[in-house]
Amino acid sequence: MEIDNLVVRYGEKAAVDGLSLTVTGGTVTSVLGPNGAGKTTTVESCEGFRRPESGRVRVLGLDPIADHDELMPRIGVMLQEGGAWSGVRALEMLRYVASLHTHPLDIPALAERLDLGTCGRTPYRRLSGGQKQRLSFALAIVGRPEIAFLDEPTTGLDPHGRREIWQLIRDLRDDGVTVVLTTHAMDEAEQLSDQVHVVSAGKVIASGTPDTLTEHGTKSLEDVYLALTAPPRREHK
Ligand SMILES: Nc1ncnc2c1ncn2[C@@H]1O[C@H](COP(=O)(O)OP(=O)(O)OP(=O)(O)O)[C@@H](O)[C@H]1O
After folding, report:
1. Is the model's pLDDT at 235 over the cut of 70?
2. Is the CB of 37 under 6 A from ligand 1?
3. What number does the ligand 1 atom closest to the CA of 40 have?
4. Is residue 12 lining ligand 1, measured as CB closer than 6 Å?
5. What is the ipTM of this complex?
6. H or E segment at 205?
7. Mind telling me which residue stretches traverse the membrane in this protein (predicted)?
8. Residue nearest to atom 25 of ligand 1 (CA)
9. What b/e readout covers 116-133, taking b as 16+ CB neighbours within 10 angstroms?
């Protein structure tokens, strides 16, 4: 996947402002950055949900806007607050999305791994925040995508859910799936990523493996991140 000098505006405001990065196939890439830095907008541009003002995006060699219909069946998308019809039951939704794909994952096995069995008959609006999150992750991967875009995949999950999703992400990579995730959890980025990009004000300000960014583990990724994204100091008179 390649993003070259991407600019996306909402009205006057450039949410993404000349962002470039490359993602190698079969790796896990984390995009980190402060709230409002432009991570979600970047990922949505790769999914074809945002039209760039300028720049070039290619996902699996395709243009996410012009080739949207060809691209969509090949990617998995987990949106922040993805949502679903309020009355749909969790397993119904999973079965429906699976039915749109040629070779979906085994639903009972996936539901069990994500602990969706007990809430499988619960309408979406009555699921807890963490259950919605688990369902949303399952929906993103059930179609065996070639690239999975995961926007804050473990936010709000209990520690068991977090670890299960981490393991599922590792399993995806072992199966050759490319994973692009955004996260505010530095331990998650450090544990899972082959490559990390730090975004601030719509641009990539640092990139590297967790090992290079942390200078071979002599610093924590959180300290590196905090130093890179520190707001300018205010002058006190
Ligand atoms: N639909 C929208 N309309 C107008 N402005 C938007 C819209 N979506 C995002 N923005 C603005 O664009 C900027 C980038 O937002 P974006 O959601 O891409 O950031 P983010 O890095 O994903 O943030 P967070 O970590 O809080 O999820 C922010 O200033 C945000 O207010």
Report:
1. no
2. yes
3. 22
4. no
5. 0.97
6. strand 203-208
7. none
8. 35
9. beebbebbbeebeebbbb
In this structure, CATH architecture of domain 25-37+77-228: 3-Layer(aba) Sandwich (3.40)
Query: 117 pLDDT band (50/70/90 cuts)?
Result: confident
Distance 14 CA to ligand 1 centre (A): 10
The domain ranges of the chain are 25-37+77-228
Question: By CB neighbour count within 10 A (0-12 exposed, 13-18 middle, 19+ buried), where does 173 fall?
Answer: middle
Residue 175 CA, ligand 1 centroid: distance in Å: 32
Q: Give the model's confidence band at 121: pLDDT under 50 very low, under 70 low, under 90 confident, else very high.
A: confident
Residue 8 has phi, psi (to 5 degrees) of: -130, 130
Q: Which of 12-21, 73-82, 224-233 has the lowest mean pLDDT?
A: 73-82
